[in-house]
Design brief:
Shape: globular
Strand content: 25-35%
Number of strands: 21
CATH architecture of the largest domain: 3-Layer(bba) Sandwich
Distance between the termini: 35 Å
Largest sheet: 8 strands, mixed
CATH topology of the largest domain: FAD/NAD(P)-binding domain
Oligomer: single chain
Radius of gyration: 22 Å
C-alpha cells in the first residue's frame, strides 16, 4: 500500500455555521463537497478517519466517472496518478476464457475502467476542493447526532479534538456509508434485499508475466476474482452467504486449496497468505431507502443504497448521486435556503437508477453466482447466453451497464458556469 499524505483541514478553526455539512469523505461526499464549493456554496466535509488509507476498498473509476472528471477539468490529474486501465472483464471456466464485458467497444470518450487506489482518488478530490475558499475538510471528525428544530434538521453534532461540537446548517448530508449513523438517527424506512454471497478479501503478489484485466475464475462451487493492483493482486474469494465462519475455522489452508484448484499458477505465492488474519470478510449487503430525505437532511451514496460488489458499480452510483444532488441543490443553497421539493427531486432522479442497478445485480447473483457456488462440477457459460452475447444489440450491454450505468449524471452547464 502506498502512503498518502494526511489531509489537513483548510481552516483549523471549526466553523459554527455552513450552508451544507456533509458527513463522510468517501466518493459521494467528496464529489458533492467539491461541486458545491465550486459553485460558491459554503461547504464543510467531516471525515471520521485521520486519512483516506483503507485497504480492500473499491478502486474502479468507471467511464461515466471519468467523463465527470473531464467535465471538471480534472481528468489529467486523475490519469497522472498511478493507475491501470482495464478494457475487458473476463471469466475463465472449464471451457476457456469468456469475455463478459468489453469496454473498448463502447462509443464513449473513455472506453475503459481506471483502477486507481481509492485513497489517491479521494486525496486528489480533496486537494482540488481545498483550493476553494468555500470548502473546509475536517479529518478525525465523526458525525454523531442530528440537530432538529421546528420539524426539520438544522445541523449536527460531531466529535473532534476530544470534544463534542455543533454545526448549524441549511442542509445536512449523510454520505457516511452503509452503516450510516445519521441515517439511523433519521429513522428512514429501508428495503433490505438478500444477496446470496459474502466475499473474503486478501492480497497476493503479482508477477510481470501474469494475465491482464479483471479476471474471474469459476469451478467446483468456487468463484474467485483477481483485480490488478500494480504490485499485487486484490483477490475476492466469493463464498455463500454466512459461510465465512465455517471456512475460516478450517484455517488458511482451506482458502489456499481453493486457489490451487482454480489458479494453480499462483501456487508459488500462496505462502504469503500466512493466516486467516490476512483475510478480511466483506459481509455483502444490498438495500435502499424508501425515502432519502427529511426537511434539511439528505442521504446519498451507500447511506441511501448499499450495493453488492457485482460489477463494482457502488462507487459509480455514489458519485452519480453526488453529481445529481449538486445539480439540484447548489442554486438554492447559495441563497441559504432549501425546500422539501428540491430534496425530493434528488431522490426521484436517483431512485430509478438505483432500483434498476440492484435488479440487475440480483439477476446476476441468482442466475450466475448462486449457480456457481452450488455446483460441484465444472462451470461453463450457458450456450444460450453465449449466443445472445454475440448479437450486436446485446453484446455491449454488460459493458455499458457496468461502465456507464443507468442514467449517468454530468455536472449541469449552470453548475459549471457558477464556479466560485
Amino acid at each position: 500500500m502506498e502512503a498518502s499524505a494526511t489531509v489537513k483541514p483548510a481552516d483549523m478553526r471549526p466553523p459554527e455555521r455552513v450552508a451544507c455539512c456533509i458527513a463522510g469523505g468517501g466518493p459521494a461526499g467528496m464529489m458533492l463537497g467539491l461541486l458545491l464549493a465550486r459553485a460558491g456554496v459554503d461547504t464543510l466535509v467531516l471525515e471520521k478517519h485521520k486519512d483516506f488509507l483503507r485497504d480492500f476498498r473499491g478502486d474502479t473509476v468507471h467511464p461515466s466517472t471519468l467523463q465527470v472528471l473531464d467535465d471538471l477539468g480534472l481528468i489529467d490529474k486523475l490519469l497522472a496518478l498511478r493507475h491501470s486501465q482495464v478494457d475487458k472483464v473476463q471469466l475463465l471456466t472449464s471451457r476457456g476464457l469468456f469475455t463478459i464485458g468489453d469496454f473498448s467497444r463502447l462509443r464513449i470518450k473513455y472506453p475503459y475502467i481506471a483502477l486507481v487506489p481509492q485513497w489517491d482518488f479521494l486525496s486528489m478530490l480533496a486537494d482540488e476542493a481545498k483550493r476553494l475558499p468555500t470548502f473546509r475538510l475536517l479529518m478525525e471528525a465523526e458525525a454523531q447526532r442530528l440537530v432538529r428544530e421546528s420539524g426539520g434538521v438544522t445541523g449536527l453534532q460531531y466529535w473532534a479534538d476530544g470534544q463534542m461540537r455543533t454545526i448549524r446548517t441549511v442542509l445536512t448530508v449523510a454520505a457516511d456509508g452503509r452503516h450510516s449513523t445519521l441515517r439511523d438517527q433519521a429513522k428512514l424506512p429501508i428495503v433490505e434485499n438478500s444477496p446470496p454471497m459474502d466475499v473474503l478479501w486478501f492480497s497476493l503478489p503479482r508477477a510481470p508475466s501474469d494475465f491482464a484485466n479483471i479476471v474471474f475464475r469459476a469451478g467446483g462451487s468456487k468463484l474467485i476474482a483477481f483485480i490488478d493492483r500494480f504490485d499485487y493482486w486484490q483477490v475476492g474469494y466469493i463464498i455463500p452467504k454466512g459461510a465465512a465462519q465455517q471456512i475460516l475455522a478450517q484455517g488458511v489452508d482451506a482458502v489456499k486449496q481453493g486457489l490451487h484448484e482454480l489458479a494453480p499458477e499462483f501456487d508459488d505465492r500462496l505462502d504469503t497468505l500466512e493466516s486467516v488474519d490476512h483475510i478480511k470478510l466483506l459481509t455483502v449487503q444490498s438495500n435502499r431507502l424508501r425515502r432519502w430525505w427529511l426537511p434539511g437532511f439528505l442521504c446519498i451514496g451507500d447511506a441511501a443504497h448499499a450495493m453488492t460488489p457485482v460489477g463494482g458499480v457502488g462507487i459509480n452510483l455514489a458519485i452519480q448521486d453526488g453529481v445529481a444532488a449538486a445539480n439540484a441543490l447548489w442554486s438554492p443553497l447559495t441563497r441559504q435556503r432549501i425546500d422539501d421539493g428540491s430534496l425530493a427531486a434528488v431522490q426521484r432522479r436517483r431512485t430509478w437508477p438505483t432500483e434498476m442497478t440492484q435488479a440487475m445485480q440480483a439477476l446476476v447473483q441468482k442466475r450466475i453466482i448462486h449457480a456457481v457456488l452450488t455446483s460441484d462440477g465444472p462451470v461453463d457459460v450457458p450456450p444460450l447466453l453465449r449466443f445472445f452475447l454475440r448479437l450486436p444489440l446485446v453484446r455491449d450491454f454488460p459493458a455499458r451497464f457496468v461502465g456507464v450505468g443507468v442514467r449517468p449524471e454530468r455536472p449541469s452547464p449552470a453548475l459549471l458556469a457558477a464556479r466560485v
